[in-house]
Design brief:
single chain, alpha/beta, Rossmann fold, seven-stranded parallel β-sheet, 8 helices, 7 strands
Length: 248
């Protein structure tokens, strides 16, 4: 079980929940981080435990919007018996937020949005990786960061979202070099998978222009995460799961 123990941040809903389910199905023991979706994560693990007739994971609650929250999550993971015995086999930086930080809105609100984007997408992954580095080495682990197809593009009012995801992409490539040969690091860049409530019209327009002419499924992203976790000779790569968005 040890080398197949993985931490998934933001694992209670949406892409995170799909990733948790896919990894459990593949035999991983999953430590699921949540902030507010504890009930959803508990229900997910209960269903998966029933389906697989075994204990499949545990849920940890923490606010990764603060350094104290990051530290509390790291401490809980390091104290988990599977990690104590065997190290950490995987770390999936999935926790994410998606909202504007420019344009209409009070300056104080925009400043707060900017802070939250950079904290969750950059500072929290950096701090968490540092805190879990030795456990990852012990488990010959793999880091997978959830980045974005916005790399190299300009999206209205989403400059800080795009920039923070680009920073996480670059930090992940840096980990691939700095933590080698004991730890691998790669990134998955989802495209039009699940729309936020406020972007339904823009999402539909994007999907209509894609070469594949359809949105993706959370399971498509989960499969990419699993691939990176289980590919022992792959590191420093970014895989776009975007239906060909990068071609247009």
């Amino acid at each position: 079980m040890g080398e197949k123990t993985v931490l998934v941040t933001g694992g209670g809903r949406r892409l995170g929940a799909a990733t948790v389910a896919a990894l459990v199905d593949a035999g991983w023991f999953v430590l699921v981080h949540v902030r507010t979706s504890r009930a959803e994560a508990d229900a997910l693990l209960a269903d998966l435990s029933t389906a697989h007739q075994r204990e499949v994971g545990r849920v940890f609650s923490a606010d990764l919007g603060t350094s104290e929250g990051v530290r509390s999550l790291a401490d809980a993971v390091l104290a988990d018996q599977t990690v104590v015995e065997h190290g950490l086999g995987g770390l999936v930086h999935n926790a994410s937020v998606f909202f504007p930080s420019e344009g209409e809105g009070a300056p104080a609100d925009m400043a707060r949005a900017r802070h939250d984007l950079w904290m969750l997408h950059v500072e929290a992954p950096v701090q968490l990786t540092g805190a879990l580095q030795e456990a990852l080495k012990h488990g010959k682990g793999s880091i997978v960061s959830m980045v974005d197809t916005s790399w190299g593009k300009a999206w209205p009012h989403l400059g800080d979202y795009s920039a923070s995801k680009a920073a996480l992409r670059q930090r992940t490539l840096g980990w691939a070099l700095d933590l080698a040969p004991h730890v691998r690091a790669n990134a998955v860049a989802p495209g039009a998978i699940l729309a936020a409530d406020w972007e339904q019209d823009a999402f539909a327009d994007t999907v209509a222009r894609l070469p594949l002419q359809r949105s993706g499924q959370p399971e498509d992203v989960a499969a990419a995460v699993r691939y990176f976790l289980e590919a022992p000779y792959v590191t420093g790569q970014v895989l776009a799961v975007d239906g060909g968005w990068g071609l247009i």
